[in-house]
Amino acid sequence: MEPGLLVAITVAGAIFLVLLSYWLIKWRFENRFRQWQYTERQTLEQERERIRRTAITQSRAVLGGKFVEQLTPYLPQFRYDPTEARFIGSPIDLIVFPGLAAGDPKEIVIMEIKTGKNCQLTPQERKIRQLIEEGMVRWELIEHGEEHSF
Q1: Residue 76: is the preceding peptide bond cis (ω within 30°)?
Q2: Per-residue model confidence as pLDDT tens digits over 92-103
Q3: Which pTM was predicted?
């Protein structure tokens, strides 16, 4: 066999092997990439579903808590006359005026209602409690007589 032909066959064989190796490696990595994409999509969808379920659960808890806040004066464990309670909602839930129904209020009770597992006051609610405990509460009267009409 001629040396030129042998060199040409060897070079062609080497090029064929390089191209075959390239295509095999490319195919292998593309398959791995597709498998990785599939796994990531599955994980992402599971995470979305978990987030969705968590959001629904939290929303139900918040709505249930708001319902209980407004219903509390009518529950058996409420120690006051429900007609003496006023729902505020935020930043505190209720103000109760014991004795108001009889025309003789005895005290003012500022009440926060908590439901659920983590019954903790917010920083704002803690500050309001502290102000009340320190006596930082006062009465103000604003009068709008005829001379102050709008």
Answers
A1: no
A2: 999 999 999 999
A3: 0.62
